[in-house]
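TL;DR need structure tokens for one chain.
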Amino acid sequence: MSIERWRARYPKLFGKLDEDIDALRYFLVIDENINDIDSDEFDAIDPEDYNYLIYITDRLQAVMDEGMMVAFLKTFESHEDVSLFYMSEIDLYGIQTALDEEGIAEMVLGIIEGLFP
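>> reply
TL;DR here they are.
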């Protein structure tokens, strides 16, 4: 989905963000969690349990206060489309879901949009 469509669907959130954002990835990173067999690094968020990694960037955190982050986490963790949830840090999560990247973005942005008055 284009950034203009995201902007139209979530006006409260985008009204708080900088105008120069031209891609979703500048404030919300959604990556498929894969098992990199060529890496010696330990996967703290096991790809077998959590198929996506979600990172809330500093840019998005800047428009959400601590209370909003807590409310977001409670809603996100218990969302019907999230079968497993793991919080590595306040801004980094592993989830198990049947949704694709766009569906995850819609879920996350919808939750955040609903938190703004």
